[in-house]
Amino acid sequence: KVDAAGNFMWSKAYAGSAFSGFGGTVVRQTATGYVLIGRAFGAAQTQMAGVYIETDTFGNQTCGLYYRRTDYGAQSFMSFNDIRVNNDGTNTIVGFVRNGDTAPREPLALRVRCTAQPIWAKTYGPNPVVAGDWAAEGMDIRFTATGPVYVMTGAANTAGSFITNFDGNGNLIGMNTKF
After folding, report:
1. 107-112: long-range contacts at Cβ-Cβ below 8 A with a sequence spacing of 24 or more?
2. pLDDT tens digits for 112-121?
3. Preceding omega of 104 cis (within 30 degrees of 0)
4. Nearest to 108 by CA among 158, 67, 148
5. pLDDT digit string (tens) for 126-173?
6. What SS3 string covers 19-43?
7. CB atoms within 10 A of CB 132
8. Could you point out which of 47, 100, 113, 139 has its C-alpha 20 to 30 Å from the C-alpha of 77?
């Protein structure tokens, strides 16, 4: 961490057998600390799991969890790519999930607290408008100005990209691909 002038304050590494992998995004969680997300290979009896770490304001880990899609078992691939802190203290994460090396990847959104199970987790695979087209990987998430609605963007399985809107419970509002 650096201060506003760019001066070094502290640094931490979250590694070893518990959290080896790739970091994704770090966000400030009001006054309580930070949340880090990413992915870890060979974690939680999977090929790749999503990693969620909470820290205090000095970067000391206060919580750390793996998430995986259980219906794919040991072949599960899951990656967390972006996160937003919600007003109620929960966090909404986007990324992707897939069954091993089998296509297609599916965009994933989940709402979490530092507990073993997400509050909800949803995937948004086939485009309901364009048959045969799939959204593939959620890369960025933003709030909309109209309330508890999110916009997720990312890559499509075919060529191009996608944009998806979903509500505060993860229910799909709309999807558009290939633009």
Report:
1. 107/135, 107/136, 107/137, 107/138, 107/152, 107/154, 107/162, 107/164, 108/78, 108/138, 109/138, 109/141, 109/150, 109/152, 109/166, 109/170, 110/67, 110/170, 111/86, 111/168, 111/170, 112/52, 112/67
2. 888 767 888 8
3. yes
4. 67
5. 555 555 556 667 788 877 766 667 888 777 766 677 778 888 888 888
6. CCCEEEEEEEECCCEEEEEEEEECC
7. 8
8. 113
